[in-house]
From TrEMBL:
This is Pyrophosphate--fructose 6-phosphate 1-phosphotransferase. It is found in: Cytoplasm. Residues 70-443 form the Phosphofructokinase domain. GO terms for molecular function: 6-phosphofructokinase activity; ATP binding; diphosphate-fructose-6-phosphate 1-phosphotransferase activity; metal ion binding. The lineage of its organism: Bacteria, Pseudomonadati, Bacteroidota, Bacteroidia, Bacteroidales.
Amino acid sequence: MKKSALQQARAAYKPQLPIVLTGGVKVVEGEATQSADNQEDIKNLFPNTYGLPEIRFEKVPAEESVEPINVGVILSGGQAPGGHNVISGLFDGIKNLNKKSRLYGFLMGPGGLVDHKYKELTAEIIDEYRNTGGFDIIGSGRTKLETKEQFDKGLEILKELDIKALVIIGGDDSNTNAAILAEYYKAIGAGVQVIGVPKTIDGDLKNNVIETSFGFDTATKVYSEVIGNIQRDCNSAKKYWHFIKLMGRSASHIALECALQCQPNVCIISEEVETKNLTLDQVVDDIADAVVARAKDGNNYGVVLIPEGLIEFIPAVKALISELNDLLAVKAEEFAAIDPEKQREWVLGQLSEANAKTYESLPAGVARQLTLDRDPHGNVQVSLIETEKLLSEMVGKRLEQLAAEGKYNGKYATMHHFFGYEGRCADPSNFDANYCYALGYTAACLIAAGKTGYMSSLRNLTFAPVNWIAGGIPITMMMNMERRHGEMKPVIRKALVELDGAPFLKFAKERNTWKYNTCYTYPGPIQYFGPSEVCDLPSLTLVYEQKRRRY
């Protein structure tokens, strides 16, 4: 594989490990844990892996080599910067235990386990991918592991390769799968450990112990760079309002972080919209207010950030989507058989009166997008809904009304953007390069400690990596019951933007100034090399949440 000059220099970067992982380690157990909610339900579903203690590692003198162990690894779900470093850290970790340990990668996600598609990851292969973006070392996929048939089929290849531990690198749904698989293998005495690693650029897989998911830092820096470029162009041309949709189906962490980095005129936080019970019209009015106010100063331009999942957080639309999910889970075949020209009428006839009214009020295109195929977890594919265009068009109509009333005489021209895949496979920032490598190495330590049903954990992340606290938390600790495909199922609870949290409060304090004035900042490209205060910064979200100084 031919490498560019940047790739060659990046490959030479040496990730830093927490000091506790640089010799022998011992396990220190904390108190027994319980699930985030629905404790009895989760306990009944996970009798063998529920209530396990949190653990942390402490450094001890290096021990003699242990027996070699074969480990499998799966990349699951969407890409996130740093996945290759997780695998590199895992590889180095098990080789440190015993040089004869072997690592097998299952190809194209969980489906590779079920279909017995894999390859051994050797030092030669691993070295090609250190500090690189993407998941192309083994590929990823979205196959959902949930049936006994899948578990047993996977166990066949694990036994054939003498794999004693399986590491699943993924988001909340993928780690839910890991917890279910760990429980099943424990229940039948399969002799296979299952360890999870927290991955998602959306930033919604975290709690008091999982301070951030990997990839969030890099992705938001990439998006912030491009938003800053657009703001510079916006401030130069002075003639467009840019509506920018950002990744974040279930939470607004990416939008909030990018707002803190770039200071746009408007940033919508979905969780605030839901909490305040705002209507779509009220959201539109808020943006129109900024357009009108800036036009009075001759500034017929601006930037609006929109989380991709916004539409699901508008209470009336959220209720509609919930009913649509249940309806299409039961009557998907009936719906698909209907002439597309008559599907809207059929849906209206199936919905409750309140939700039918909401559905009918939506533009035809948006209403149609709400009935498109669900993802494997039964969710609306909100990335397909062009919320940025919907809002810009509705703002335009509102401005026409204000102009007719003599309340607006500016110019309104728009540009639309959706930043999604641009940030998912970037080379990891120094923070993510270090964090991911340490997560993989920690997973190896969890395996050596004989743990299963745990997620690799690192804390103290606003300090230098040598001071990070390594350990693991039971995956069941993060779970609750939610409705999926019309049924209540155990899932990891998503972490939403906390409106009383430090990152949002910082944003809320500044946003009115940003709204009416041009306060843009231009973060520029990710800085891999240079002074520590430039290239080693964690995200502002993490800084404000931890209320500590950046290292």
